[in-house]
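Batch job 17 of 40 flagged for manual review because the log was empty.
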Amino acid sequence: MNQAKQGDTVKIHYTGTLDDGSVFDSSAEGNPLEFTIGSEQVIPGFEKAVTGMAIGDKKSVSIPADDAYGPVFQEMIRKVPKGVLPEDLEPTEGMTLQAQSPEGRPINMIVIQVEEDTITVDGNHPLAGQTLNFDIELLTVG
């Protein structure tokens, strides 16, 4: 049987849940996810889970934060003055903003608190620090 290995392009259906059972992502109602194992297109724990599966295999895995989006880094949570925002932008909690790293890479941040003169933003991935649970079905291996 053809098992998924490093360098193979695979198609899978998946449903991702948090420990409280809430679904954070799923391909069930849409197109399957396609990626190449070893290309770092998906989180490391997900690649490990798919490696060794054969077409038609289904499995459930729990991926710790270290093999997913990593821990929450407190230094990625910052208070910034509202004056650095565009004048026409009224920040609200939950709003996504984008900044640039010193190297010029985009950084997505979520506004987690709005005060009179400042906002607090979190540049961590929204799933950082969380164990991710996946139900996976391997559809194709190429």
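Reviewer: the log was empty due to a logging misconfiguration, but the result itself is present. The mean pLDDT is 95. Unflagging and moving on to job 18.
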